[in-house]
Amino acid sequence: MSYSTEVKKLLEEGAKSYASKNFEVAIENYGEACQLYSQDHDGEEDPDLLLLYGKALFQLAQSRNGLFGGNPDATDDKEGEAGTDADAKPSNANGMFTFSEDVPLAEEEDEDENSAKEEEEKQDEEEDEEEEGAKDEKKDTNEEEEEQSDFEVAWEILDLARALFESQIGGMTNDIPQDANKSQDPVIQTKLKLSEIYDLLGEISLETENFKQASDDFESLLKVRESLYQFNSNMISEAHYKLSLALEFNFDDKESKDKAITHLKLSIESIKQNTENAEKNKDVVKDLEIRLEDLQKDPNEIFNQQKQEIMKGILGEAVSSPQTKKPTSTQPKNQTWKD
Fold it and tell me: Smallest Cα–Cα separation from 190: which of 159, 217, 168?
């Protein structure tokens, strides 16, 4: 694809920023490149530029997700407790003594008026504090929504790129000549980009705990990769593994657990058939087989085992039982997926 000088410059700057993990600047560069291209081509979008833009958005969303992974409510709770302590202080904090019996009537009236005035002022202050608190809470909510929307923006951009690449493939012939240079073949190049996009879409769906969508994304990833790689390729074993992970937590589908087991078995078999790296893959196969055993366990058996471990913990014989968690990584221990 031929780009203008301005777009090329933005792409160079974006690549440098992306490589140095300065994703905010990379997003600005790639976003502007997309905008300039669209302006120069009557509103047409370029999927390659969108892919770069979407990848930078995803990386920023991931970094922010890790950065703000703490509990923001803890600070608010402390501030609330501090406010309660201040309210609990006695109003007459200056140590002065008053003798009500000896106070003249006129001074009593003045004190009543002053007391009423002080009460009114205090009420106004409390109302102002409530309004400020409501504004701060609304601001915090808006900021949280903005943080959560990082993945949504990345999703929209990448999904648009996906649609455009799929449209391109629809207009191409899928018959690749035997003597064709596969690294330069346009169908293969487009499918490789689609593979990358489906991988990213699946990761976003896992991050946002949309496991049904993640299952769909990784299933599409698997289909694309199956048209590009042999069964014993790491790219195939990785796709089966990621699909298994998404299916394991897709509780909307009653058959998801059986499907997860099937794809995990296929992932293991794919790795085993990669005889060139058999020695290097021993550890990852072992890890995946342990995971498979856990996945195949009967839920009642797991429940009873957890009960026993809890009882042991109560008796001081063991620590607390493991809990089911959402997936924190799509890469098993001891494995780095490379083709």
Answer: 168
